Amino acid sequence: MISYIEPVFRPPSEARSFILQVTNGCSWNKCTFCEMYTEEQKKFKARKEEDIEQDIIKVAQAGYPFNKVFLADGDAMVLPMRKLVSILEMIKKHLPQVRRVSSYCLPRNIYKKSVEDLAQLKELGLDILYVGCESGDTQILEFVNKGETYETQRDALLKIKAAGLRSSVMILNGLGGPKYTEQHAINSAKLMNETQPEYLSTLVVSFPQGEERFKEGFKQDWSLMDQTGLFLELKHFIEHLELEKTIFRSDHASNYLPLKGVLGRNKADMLEQINTALYQPDRIRLRQEWQRGL
């Protein structure tokens, strides 16, 4: 039906969505922690509008009952406004039943678009942007070559909110290693408090293809954190969160301790679960190593 250029990734919550590939790869593709897209796998390239429309038409003609569309690959928001508007109008024309369009989003590409631009995209069906902040600490962001700072990420998230769009933010548990764990937790919480995203998740940093590339780029003392260190960092992070009604998840397969709830309503309960994992691990269900994955 549709020929995807592999690999293709999507957020867990987009499992039932029509994955519409509008770009290939990631427009930045320099983060040392990321194994999703590399230069060896695929170089970044925007797809032609006529090819995108043909994919939409194929799905429409097949009669698949999709009501959500996810714009792949790594960052559809790098596309110029004219092209994004055109793609959303194609979806409206051929798949009128679609109620939600979403995309991964790099903060730097929001900088190039005004609140009015984003509001126009919302009017055309764009609803939620998945923003991988990874950390709120500018020093750690520099170490991992994220190409962002606390301020650039804050400004992007606030602009998304001002346009009426929703954001889903991801923080990487353990990204700074043991040496930088405290500033990573505190500044990440500070970023979330200032921007109040609708959704927040944590993943445990891991390297199925090996740590060498990451360590070489980090240029500081760094090591993988053990389970206790990860739990302490997560506890520190949640303790410093002052969120009003953010839906929180740490149920990705990389996490040892799955957590779900609304912050701040369920903050005390989450902290209790973390304390149980730390001090009475036999009383709580934790993922075993063989159950974890990226």
Describe this structure in words.
The protein is α/β, with parallel strands linked by helices and 294 residues long. It starts with 17 loop residues before the first strand and ends in a 15-residue tail after the last helix. It has 10 helices and 10 strands. The chain has 2 domains: 1-105, Transcription Regulator spoIIAA (2-Layer Sandwich), CATH 3.30.750; 130-294, Transcription Regulator spoIIAA, CATH 3.30.750.
Beta-strand level of the residues, as a percent range?
Answer: 15-25%
Strand count, sense and closure of the main sheet? 8 strands, mixed
As for the CATH topology of the largest domain, it is Transcription Regulator spoIIAA
What general outline do the C-alpha atoms trace?
globular
| Distance between the amino and carboxyl termini | 28 Å
Q: H/E element string?
A: EEEHEHEHHEHHEHEHHEEH
Find the count of extended strands (DSSP E, 2+ residues): 10
The radius of gyration computed from the alpha-carbon positions, rounded to a whole number of angstroms, is: 19 Å
Number of helices: 10
What's the mean pLDDT score? 93
**Uncertain parts:** none
Total separate domains: 2
Q: Which class do the helix and strand fractions yield?
A: alpha/beta
Gist?
The chain is 37% helix and 17% strand. The chain is α/β, with parallel strands linked by helices.
Keywords:
Transcription Regulator spoIIAA, 294 residues, alpha/beta, globular, 10 helices, 10 strands
What is the strand and helix layout of this fold?
Blueprint: E1 18-21, E2 23-24, E3 45-46, H1 49-62, E4 68-72, H2 81-94, E5 100-105, H3 107-111, H4 115-123, E6 126-134, H5 138-143, H6 150-162, E7 166-173, H7 181-195, E8 199-204, H8 212-218, H9 227-239, E9 246-249, E10 260-263, H10 267-279
Parallel strand pairs: 1-4, 4-5, 5-6, 6-7, 7-8, 8-9
Antiparallel strand pairs: 2-3, 9-10
Helix pairs in contact: 1-2, 6-7, 7-9, 9-10
